[in-house]
Amino acid sequence: MSKKVTTPEVAEENTTAAATQDQGLSLNDITACVSIIDIVTKRGAFEGSEMADVGAVRNRLATFLAAAKAAQEESNPTTEAETPVNA
């Protein structure tokens, strides 16, 4: 029988690499945050004095998403003229 021995350094590198990959923030995460803010606002989760700050953060996130979407569309342009249509 052979026994696999893992050194602490290798195990630590694998854990660190996995943790780094799992900590990423995607555009879908930011979109979810905007949706959450909208939902909890409708449910009255914030006091009036907090609304300005919450609204400011929500607007910055929404502006960031719009800019990111525009940048993606510019880097991946697709037009209907390029797609052949079979009749």
Task: Describe how the helices and strands are arranged.
Layout: H1 8-22, H2 27-42, H3 48-75
Helix pairs in contact: 2-3
Summary tags:
87 residues; mainly alpha; elongated; 68% helix; single chain
The rounded distance between the terminal residues' Cα atoms is 66 Å
Low-confidence stretches: none
Mean pLDDT: 79
| Number of beta strands | 0
What value does the Rg take, in angstroms?
Answer: 23 Å
User: In percent, how much strand structure appears in the residues?
Assistant: under 5%
**Main sheet: strands, sense, barrel:** none
Tell me roughly what share of residues is in helical segments.
Answer: 55-70%
Structural class: mainly alpha
3D shape: elongated
Number of helices: 3
Give the topology string: H per helix, E per strand: HHH
Can you give a write-up of this model?
It is a single chain. By secondary structure, the protein is mostly helical. It has a domain at 25-76. It has 3 helices and no strands. The chain has helices at residues 8-22, 27-42, 48-75. The chain is elongated and about 55 Å long. The model has no long low-confidence stretch (mean pLDDT 79).
Short description:
By secondary structure, the protein is mostly helical. The protein has helices spanning 8-22, 27-42, 48-75. The protein is elongated, with a radius of gyration of 23 Å.
